[in-house]
Amino acid sequence: MPNVFVKVPEPTLRRLPWYLAYAKLARQQGETHLSSTQIAQKIGIDASQVAKDFSFVTVSGKTRVGYEIDELITTLEQFLGFTNCHKAFLFGAGSLGSSLLHDNGLTQYGLEVVAAFDIKVELVGTQINRIPIQHLDRFMEIQAQTGVQIGILTVPVNQAQEVADIMIAGGIKAIWNFTPFRIRVPEDIVVQNTSLYAHLAVMFNRLRGLLEEEKE
Amino acid sequence: MPNVFVKVPEPTLRRLPWYLAYAKLARQQGETHLSSTQIAQKIGIDASQVAKDFSFVTVSGKTRVGYEIDELITTLEQFLGFTNCHKAFLFGAGSLGSSLLHDNGLTQYGLEVVAAFDIKVELVGTQINRIPIQHLDRFMEIQAQTGVQIGILTVPVNQAQEVADIMIAGGIKAIWNFTPFRIRVPEDIVVQNTSLYAHLAVMFNRLRGLLEEEKE
DNA sequence: TAGATTGTTAATCGATTAACAATC
DNA sequence: TAGATTGTTAATCGATTAACAATC
User: What tens digit of pLDDT does each residue of B15-52 get?
Assistant: First the structure.
């Protein structure tokens, strides 16, 4: 029996959205049932890996038939938190920050940015994609009113720690960190690091390895 | 002795940019030397982890003194491939794609997008941030001329596999995949998955775990 | 010398893979 | 029943942590 109190491994959490994306695609193509072996084949993951990952989620499949596709999608979306509406603030409406404000895809996945904060006077008072930009000084006050728990950090690197500290002081519980800086936070604060540059580094390294292999 | 042929673990590659970011910040603040224990403390990582990670890179520190900060930064940047100029194509100039075209930060980290491809006629022929958008049909021809090896995939989910196949057929060796879909590729192709939604899922799950803990 | 730091080698921990039992 | 699939339990693999030797 899957247990909500068992901590789901991070690699599993990162794979579950792949299964979901494939299931959605299969449904679009008219499928009604999906077996884990089928998913495994199509997206190139070990079948036992898929089975193991599903064991963390409360999905029930039928032998010889697989999973009912609508049920699978609903269950995965619910488990991953994509159906809930999570309100969030964004800190730093620079180029990366404003891109995120423009991205309507986030709402589909359960994240609604309700306000952005910056210190640039020319930005304060304006809106991006109907989301108001306020001065950072007003954050505490607005947070107290709304009780938002998620903060998106898109400030310049050298302000990352400082702004993170302000966020935490104001009551933010989870920080989605887009800066390449690893911020320090108390134990009871969740940090999700999403640095494009770190991913670039991995890709460059693997590409180099590939090219060296070919030389031999 | 560090060896270039030893495969560097992915977790290490993802941490190295953190050390780099901290080193740059420390230099800005006037530091000239940095010890690994100092880095470890400041960014909240085990000192032995930092030491182990550095063992993959050819950095040489001095006992009691640490690392010479300029040398450390140069070495890390070189190792991570941030100093080389890697040319890349972008596929799919939608909302996410055009955000990336606007982001000048990528050039700083060694990635230069030289052209974008799309199938929307109203986009073809225009430019974003001085980067020309071409019709996808012209990709093969342009690739043959330029020999670009990196492709950024920012098309809608249901076209991810199809466009990836075209990229590979044209000679792309590394795909930076921003779609939530896990594309299948031959063994000698590098894929770097960067799905914001996967990261969201991890964050939501950890946040939920946190809130449940507090209840008890 | 004493103390601090690098950097390696061994032990632990956790995730992945493989094997297999259960079910329809 | 035979075969295909779910889903669990055990074995393997790799990364992290801990211990410690080497160095200035």
Answer: 999 999 999 999 999 999 999 999 999 999 999 999 99
Q: B115 has which bridge partners? A: B89
pTM of the model: 0.94
Q: Are A184 and B3 in contact (CB under 8 A)?
A: no
**pLDDT tens-digit series, residues A61-96:** 787 788 999 999 999 999 999 999 999 999 999 989
Q: Looking at B65-108, which runs of residues are DSSP E strands? A: 67-68, 86-91
Q: Which of A69, A66, A15 is nearest to A44 (CA)?
A: A15
| CATH number for region B10-80 | 1.10.10.10
The shortest C-alpha distance from A96 to chain B (Å) reads: 7
Which of B 53-92 lie inside 8 A of A, CB atoms? 80-82, 84, 86
**Which residue(s) pair with A19 in the sheet?**
none
Q: Domains of chain B: which residue ranges?
A: 10-80, 86-198
Could you identify the residue written with the tokens 């193509």? Answer: A29
Test B157 with A81 for CB contact under 8 angstroms: no
**May I ask the CATH architecture of the domain A86-198?**
3-Layer(aba) Sandwich (3.40)
Report the residue of chain A nearest B193, measured CA to CA. A199
Comparing alpha-carbon positions, the chain B residue that sits nearest to A41 is B184
Q: What's the CA–C1' distance between A48 and D11, in Å? A: 14
Chain B neighbors of A158, CB-CB under 8 A = 25, 28
Q: Report angle CA B129, B130, B133 to the nearest 5 degrees.
A: 95
